[in-house]
Amino acid sequence: MARRFAISPHEYISFQKYVNHSIRKKLPGLTYVNGFHSEMQNSRKVTHLINFCVNNNLDFLIFDHYAHGLSSGSFTDVFNVTIGRMYNDLCNIMKHETTNSQILVGSSMGFWLSLLVALKGEEQLKNRITGIIGIAPAINFTENILKEAKEKGLFLDESNTSPDSFYHRQSKYSPTGTYPISFHFLQEARNHLLDLKNIRNKIKFPIVLLHVILLIM
């Protein structure tokens, strides 16, 4: 059952967690970090991860980003739906809802957020990360979306574009057929872009990347 982690008097992050109490020597727990416009409800990846953790006596933490799923907020609140906000929320919920070492499992944007914690998080938090698994990782994906929007004639004059202008991007995963992405989301993300060439020298624990290609014969 989902619980609520209070971010402010009127904002909360919905999460689920399992803590194994049967083993004295603690194994690393798993923290699952969703992608953009993804949520913990009705997710096959989340269901498989929960079953794996329970069957193998591993702690786990799963949550919905701000304005996603069961968490508070709305995508129309453009100044709060940002990479920076989601990174800070991830740091806060890990600090308060996990205690032992953690393996971060980041799906799409979640891998980017996981790397931000490992590279820029507080020292105590960074030291508890023992590995990261990236599922179809999407680091710096906002730059590609901004380029795509401009090719469609949007956001061409960045200095005069309103922060609450939206690009309704087509997606087969959306019930409406599109996902709203604000100009402010794309602009703010530039504060958190990562230099992929230097990541290897700054991270000392294992990173595993998973990609799936479906071939229809």
UniProtKB/TrEMBL annotation:
State the superkingdom: Eukaryota
The record places domain Serine aminopeptidase S33 at: 36-211
> What keywords appear on the UniProt entry?
Hydrolase
InterPro entries, alphabetized:
ABHD10_acyl-thioesterase (IPR052382), Hydrolase_4 (IPR022742)
Pfam families, from UniProt? Answer: Hydrolase_4 (PF12146)
GO MF annotations for this entry? Answer: hydrolase activity, hydrolyzing O-glycosyl compounds
This protein's record includes keyword Transmembrane helix: no
Instruction: Tell me the protein's name.
Output: Serine aminopeptidase S33 domain-containing protein
